[in-house]
Amino acid sequence: MDKSLLQKLAKRIKELRKLNNFTQDELSFRAKIGRSTLGNIETAQNDVTFTKVNKIAKAFNMSLSEFLNF
């Protein structure tokens, strides 16, 4: 994935996480992904699969299109 797109996604996740008062632990639990994986996604260190993006969107109770509106 393009680095600038990863950075936008990372920023979106972090903003939504803080807006919802979720810790990384809580969001990773809700999304059913590892905490270290979420941390790497949130800092744009790792590429992310579509499946993980969808899991994170669901953890925020958002549709994928709403989640990716950045």
Helix and strand succession?
HHHHH
Please write the CATH class name: Mainly Alpha
Low-confidence runs: none
Radius of gyration: 11 Å
> Helical content, roughly?
55-70%
Biggest sheet details: none
CATH architectural arrangement: Orthogonal Bundle
The CATH homologous superfamily? lambda repressor-like DNA-binding domains
Number of helix segments?
Answer: 5
What is the CATH topology? 434 Repressor (Amino-terminal Domain)
**Number of spatially distinct domains:** 1
Give an overview in words.
The protein has one domain (3-67): lambda repressor-like DNA-binding domains (434 Repressor (Amino-terminal Domain), Orthogonal Bundle). Helix 2 (24-31) crosses helix 3 (35-42) and helix 2 (24-31) crosses helix 4. The chain has helices at residues 3-19, 24-31, 35-42, 50-59, 64-67. With 70 residues, it is mainly α. The model has no long low-confidence stretch (mean pLDDT 95). The two termini are 16 Å apart. The longest helix is centred in the N-terminal third of the chain and has 17 residues, at 3-19. The chain is 67% helix and 0% strand. It is built from five helices and no strands.
